[in-house]
Amino acid sequence: MPFIFSAVLVIIGLYVRVSLHESPVFEKVAKAKKQVKIPLGTLLTKHVRVTVLGTFIMLATYTLFYIMTVYSMTFSTAAAPVGLGLPRNEVLWMLMMAVIGFGVMVPVAGLLADAFGRRKSMVIIHHADHPVRAVRL
Known about the structure:
Helices cover 82% and strands 0% of the residues.
């Protein structure tokens, strides 16, 4: 069964890649047939602030994601005084649905950021999440 899902994802990925248009900058460089080099040294000397900020933002995002995933699994399946005592299989299904939701919302958040700007989209997403958190309680 996982192989079937994988095949579907490959087809979707291929369709997305074929339907994407190259940026004007890339087309210009491709027509010139000149190879543009962006060495690591240039990245680390001329773009230090952006590189460090991007690194730490992603580090924080994925660190929190994995900590919460592992903690929720441990807490949810632990016995009653310490945890919730839920069956491991059910918790795995809930985590899988959460990860799928996370994967779906990443492009949605990107579309919102493109449409409204990064700051406004963060505010929109934050406030849209309030009803979801209320239901979880």
